[in-house]
């Protein structure tokens, strides 16, 4: 069985919060953040953006800890895996790549949290969750804050700002403003 929102009982409907502005219209301020501005709000936002993941990987590679984000991404992908055979194959791949003592890209997780190879025979979507959470917290409280101060992040932010302030971007914004304010 795989878990998804549809399998939840009706007593737990999805929660959707709507924030309104002073005039009662739905606020879109949270939607206007993009790129580096959005990445700077949380590691979660950074990891939801393919460009953010690319830049974060670039940074982690320089810090010799790219395996952390690769493991986190592999676990996210693993959760979506359907079928026992595919899950066994992916679980073994994750184990051999990141968790085994002979792993090529071993992640630094607490020793007692290491999985035993026998668990790979009966995989389930959340079998790596505790380890994934450890790595997420390691990234969140260690490398993420350094990433936000890194040349990679700051240069990308600067290039975004230059694009936004370019004459072409301003002209397009003025055209859009005229269209919506008529």
Automatic annotation (TrEMBL):
KW Lipid metabolism (keyword) present: no
* Keywords noted in UniProt: GTPase activation
Q: GO biological process annotations for this chain's record?
A: regulation of G protein-coupled receptor signaling pathway
This protein's record includes keyword Ubl conjugation: no
What does the entry list under GO cellular component? cytoplasm; nucleus; plasma membrane
Query: Which superkingdom is the protein from?
Result: Eukaryota
Residues covered by region (Disordered): 159-182
Gene3D superfamilies in UniProt:
1.10.196.10, Regulator of G-protein Signalling 4, domain 2 (1.10.167.10)
In its UniProt entry, what is this protein called? RGS10 protein
């Amino acid at each position: 069985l795989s878990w998804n929102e549809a399998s939840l009982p009706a007593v737990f409907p999805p929660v959707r919060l709507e924030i309104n502005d002073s005039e009662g219209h739905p606020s879109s301020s949270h939607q206007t953040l993009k790129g580096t501005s959005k990445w700077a709000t949380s590691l979660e936002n950074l990891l939801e953006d393919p460009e953010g993941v690319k830049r974060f990987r670039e940074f982690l590679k320089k810090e010799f800890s790219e395996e952390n984000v690769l493991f986190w991404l592999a676990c996210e992908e693993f959760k979506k895996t359907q079928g026992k055979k595919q899950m066994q194959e992916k679980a073994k791949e994750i184990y051999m790549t990141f968790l085994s003592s002979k792993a090529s890209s071993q992640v630094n997780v607490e020793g007692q949290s290491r999985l035993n190879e026998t668990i790979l025979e009966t995989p389930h979507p959340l079998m790596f969750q505790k380890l994934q959470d450890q790595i997420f917290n390691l990234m969140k409280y260690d490398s993420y804050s350094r990433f936000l101060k890194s040349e990679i992040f700051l240069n990308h932010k600067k290039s975004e700002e230059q694009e936004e302030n370019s004459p072409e971007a301003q002209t397009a914004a003025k055209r859009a403003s005229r269209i919506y304010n008529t």
